[in-house]
Structures are given as C-alpha cells and as structure tokens.
Amino acid sequence: MKKKFYKKLFLASTVGIVGVAGSLSMQAPTFAQENDTTSELEIKANEFIKLASENKWEDAYKYFNEKLQTISKEYISATWNSFAANYGQTKSIELKDVKKNIVHTRVTFSVTGEVSPYELYFNFDKNGKIDDFSVGYPTYPYSTPSYDHPENYTEKEVVVGSEEFPLPGVLTLPKGEGPFPVVVLVQGSGPHDMDSTYLGNKPFRDIAVGLANEGIAVLRYEKRTKVYPFKTGTNPKFTIQDETVLDANYAVETLKDIPEVDAKNIYVLGHSQGGFALPLILENDKNGDIKGGIVVAGPAGKFQDLLVWQLEQSLEKAKDANAPKEQIEALEANVAFWKTQVGLINDPQYTLENPPTDFQLGPTDWWYNLRDIEAPEVSKKQNVPLFVVQGGKDFQVPASHLELWKEALKERDNVSYKFYPNMHHFLAENPNATGTTADYLAPANTSEQLISDIGQWVKTGAIDEQSEEKPEVGLPQYKDYEDNQYWSKAFTWAIQEGIIKGYQNENLLKPNNALNESQYLTVFFRYTMGEALKDESLKNIYALAKENGLPVKGSAFSELSLQEAAVLISKSITKKDMSVEESVKWLMDNNILEGLNVTGNESLTQSITRAQFVTLLHRIHEANLIGK
Hints:
Shape: globular
Number of helices: 23
Distance between the termini: 73 Å
Oligomer: single chain
C-alpha cells in the first residue's frame, strides 16, 4: 500500500521534469501582510506540526476544515511521513511568512531536511481552519526584469475556478483607457503557483508585467493541484481536464465579466503541459470565446513517452558527467521502472475499464485519459489561430517538437511559429545552458523578444518574418564536435548553411552514426533546394526523390551502405544512371573519396556515416560538381 502511495505522491509533484512546486511570492498590494492574524495562524500551524510529528492524528484533525476531514487519516499520515522519506529527517524548521490572498491565508515554513531543504505550507480558510497543505522546493532569489515598469500597470485579485475549487488569481491591467486584449496563462505539469515559479525563475510574472508594456492584460492563477493537493490527489477520477483544462475555461469565463477586458480578444497561453493541453482547452471552449492560442514549449508527441525520454536524457547526462556509481544505478532503476509503467499505459489491452493490476503511477484515469492524445493532431481539427514557439536550449521538450507541430499543421494557414535558439524551458535566454536543472538556479527572466513577439501576434495576428531568429550555428554547442577531424570543416559548413541541424535537443552531431535513406534525401534536398524546401515530411521527400529519378529503396530508416550512397550521389549530382563501379570511379576521379579509407569491395558494403556523407557533399560543393 505505502509503496504505491509514495509513487503517487512523488508523481503529484514531479510529473515531468517541469513538475515542481514553488512557494508563492508576489509584490504588494496583491498579497498584503496580515499582521493581526500572523501570530494566531502561526501558532495553529506549529501546533498541527507538533501533533502530526507525534502521530496524534485524532487531535491534529481538529485543525482541518470539514472538507479536509473527509480524507482518511491513513492517507494524510502517509503523506506526512513521506516528507521525511523524500527530504530526510527534519533538522530545523522556521516560519518564512504568512500571506493572504483572495481565497486563503498561506503560512509557509522553511524546513531543513537531512537530504535537502524544502518549504512546507498550509492554506487556512477564512474560518482559520486548514483547507489543505503540501510541500515544495525552497524559493531561490529572483530578479525583477528590466522591462518591469510598475508605472505602466495595476494589479487586482480575482477568483478563478469552480465553487468547489476556487483559485486565487491576479489580473495585470495596463494603465490607460481599456478595454484591453487579455492573455490567460496556463502552467506546466506539477503544482505550480501563479508565477510558475521554479528555482530562480518566475516566467508567468515576467510575461504579465512584460505584456502590460504592450497594452495587453494578463490573468494568471494558482494551479488547482497547488491550492488543493489533498483534495485532488485523493480523487481516483482526476484527469488532465480537472488539473488544467476546466480551470483555464473558468478563467476565460471570469474575464468576460470584467469591464477593463475586451471580451472579444481573449487569448490563452499554455506552457509545457499547458501547451499540450491547449487544444483540449480550445475544444472545451463551447462558446468560442477564445480568439487565439499560444503554445510555448508544448509537447507534440504522447505525454508519457516524453517523460521516459526526459529520464533517459537525465541518465545519459549523469553518465557523461561521470556521476557516482550509486547515482547512475538509481537513475537506471528509475528509467527501468518508468519504462515498465509507461509500457502498461501504452499497452492497448488496458483501458480505463480494464486497468493493469500492477500499475503504480497513481490514478489510472489521469493516464488513460490522455495516453492517446497528441496535441497537434487535436489541433488539426480546429481553426482557432495559433502561435507555436520553442526554445533551442530546452532539454525537457526537445526543439524537434516544433517541427512536429509544423508537420501536423501544415495544411492550416493561421498558425505562426518561432524558434528561439538560446531559450531554455523556463523561457530565459541562456547561450551557455548546460541542459540540466543547474540552468534554473541563477535568477533569470523571460526572453524580452518572446514577450514582444507574443504582444505583436496578439495585436496583429502575425509575426514579423524578418525578426525570426534562426537556430544557433556555432559548433562549440555540440559536445561531440572536434576541430581536428577530417569532417570538421564539412560539418562547420553544413551547420552554417542549415544543411545539417544536428541533434539540438541533445547538443550532439553524432558524426559516426550510420546514415539512413530518409536522412540522405533530406540533407541532399536541403543542399540543392535551400529555402525552397518548405516541406521536409517523408511523403514530400520521397515525392522529390521520385521526381528526380533517384534509385531509392523506399525504406526511410534503413541504413545506407557506402556503395548505395555512391549510386545515389552520382545520380543526384550528374542525373546519370551509373552502376556501383561507375559511381565509385566517378567519385574517385573527382577526389571526393580521398582520405575516407574507402578501399576494396568490403568497405563499400559498410554503412556510410553522417561524417562521411557530409564530407562527400562538402567536397562536391567545393568542386562545383552540381550539373557536371
């Protein structure tokens, strides 16, 4: 019982690497310090902590309101004990602050555990009873962005959500005469506060104050799992609809009754899991109140598969960093566990009505409700304008997902895209990002260019093509680049020309990987067609191959041998049909194979590597052989 519970509890705070808790920190007057109630609620919280630590739950329950008392003591006590299991035994605890919002008064403690520090917070209702409580990572220093101009905006508190789950929200309004267009902000996975706080980042606060300069209002609110962790965690029917979708729709409904807001210009921005959920939010917008959607770092594939990929990347990074053996083994065990569990999710024999008996990731309804969802596929059927953006330094949602959005929505003419090469997952620019959570420790602010682009898109429905940044072309970003190899010059040329993009989500070139047929065709047509190649889908790539009479096998992911590549290259360049011997001779005569250790029939049957192919193409380019 407890093993499964701990898995569930861990999931509640860490679904995806982005799923982390943070404590709420807002500037006055949004949350005014209530000195007259501070002592009383601090005393109550301390008394509860003492009773819970002594396992006196009969007495501890007296501090809960009626709703929280409906949750079993076994569940509450198991949660409390899990804090020590996750963070270590408490070494010290002290009050951090008492802050009041429109729904609760939150009492937060800074706790030092033997393993790591954390924050423990209690949400007290208006009757001085505990309505819910949970833990989160400690707050790190945050720096106000240079584009925050308080003289340009005002803020007021609003309540978002249902009567059962009211959520504290803040509406940032530009000064001046409204009504103003407005953007609703929807968080990623995990119990986020309204600022989407994570370590040294508060991207939603940055977006709110930044868009105020653009004359755009912003509504942000605390996520339901942040305000009501127990009430949501004990609901076996809890799904992404409850976690994310419904409250976003409630937020839109709330805005329609606020006179300073232009009800005909309401936009929704979803970050990470919020971006994944954005098509579902639009689908649930029964009255068509949402004018446009903004997908920021939104996963394009299946959510559960991305989680496994994230964990595998963490393992690989730990190995590359020569992490201690115990850490590697723990990560390997975690990857194996998640692969097994995600395998159960993806197994078609299991359904909501027939879940697996050994599933350990919490409510099956949450997982099986979204297991087959691919956000771009849902968006295909919709016509609400979209702006889809992605950062090149994002190690949680790889840059390649932007291309998946483009491919899926290529038939739509009301979708804009933009790539920010140096932007990480929490939306700050960092050219030196390491691809680890260390990137988030230092105070950082949301890209001002991103905020400007969002403002432009909201006001005009388009993005200035001239302003679009291109992926970074410097070679030092790739961990496996070496400047003394036969292929070094060729890769530098190919990257700068956009012919090779590398594995940007991994910061790798993988020069020694075997080349497959679809990769050959994609790279070749990028070289010969340049910007005229608008569609890199397999369907279009093979249509171009047929149009050019190339002798392809039609097996996109099969490795090419050197002799097969030689035939393709000679036909691609000369437009002449040649045998293997004739193709190799043509390459030899033009000094294209020089220095690649290609001798004899045995070497010709081996797979051609990415490095060899890029080098061949570079030499063909330098020799100006196209058309000869």
